[in-house]
Amino acid sequence: MSADDITRTLVDYVRQHQNPDQALIPQNIPQGILDILLTDAEAKSQESASGNYLSTAVLLILSQKQGSSKIDVTKSTLATSISHYTQAIYLESLQRKGIIKDLLPERNLENILDRVKASYGLTELGKRLVKESSDSTPSYLTNDSDTVFEVH
Q1: For residues 5 and 96, what is the distance between their CA atoms, to the nearest angstrom?
Q2: Of 10, 48, 51, 63, which is least surrounded by CB within 10 A?
Q3: Structure pTM?
Q4: What does the alpha-carbon distance between residue 142 and residue 42 come to, in Å, rounded to a whole number?
Q5: Which of the 8 DSSP states describes residue 121?
Q6: Given pLDDT bands bounded at 50, 70 and 90, which one contains residue 141?
Q7: How many other C-beta atoms are found inside a 10 Å radius of the C-beta of residue 64?
Q8: Helices and strands of the chain, counted as H and E runs
């Protein structure tokens, strides 16, 4: 699948969703779309890609928030929004994999691109993984010094 096809898939998914405002909120994203965004985030973190799909997703969210297909956003705001969105999709992925539980606050259109204090519990699997790891916090959860995580 080409990059243009993937971008079109993201845009079409949002347009065809029964509630487009909620389509790209992490807990509502189908696994296939989440995988595309996670792969893009991983490539972006290794500087081997530009993060085009994450950028597209964030621009679609901003479009929904502003109620217009024409949006006004600075590079700095876009970069910060992408960072916050990336962390939200990583946390959703960890929850789906059964590593974390009770993720709060629930993300929605109003807070998905904001700095939030995420709180979650570790499942038994999560506790085992932390015990086996020399670094209890995965690097992708700490790549933004503005984001705070609290494990309970």
Answers
A1: 26
A2: 48
A3: 0.81
A4: 14
A5: E
A6: low
A7: 20
A8: 5, 3
* Confidence (pLDDT) at 144: 47
> Residue 26 has which token pair?
């992490």
Structural contact between residues 151 and 121, judged by C-beta atoms closer than 8 angstroms: yes
Percentages (nearest 5) of helix, strand, coil residues in the chain: 55, 10, 35
Mean pLDDT of the region 84-104? 95
Domain span at residue 126 reads: 3-151
Torsion of CA 121, 122, 124, 128, to 10 degrees: -160
Edge-to-edge, what's the strand order for the sheet holding 148-151? 100-104, 117-122, 148-151
Cis preceding linkage at 26, omega within 30: no
Residue 142 above 80 pLDDT?
A: no
Buried b or exposed e, range 126-149, using 16+ CB within 10 angstroms: beebeeeeeeeeeebeeeeeebee
DSSP state of 100: E
Which among 94, 97, 81, 87 has a CA at the least distance from the CA of 140?
87
Return the biggest CA–CA distance within the chain.
48
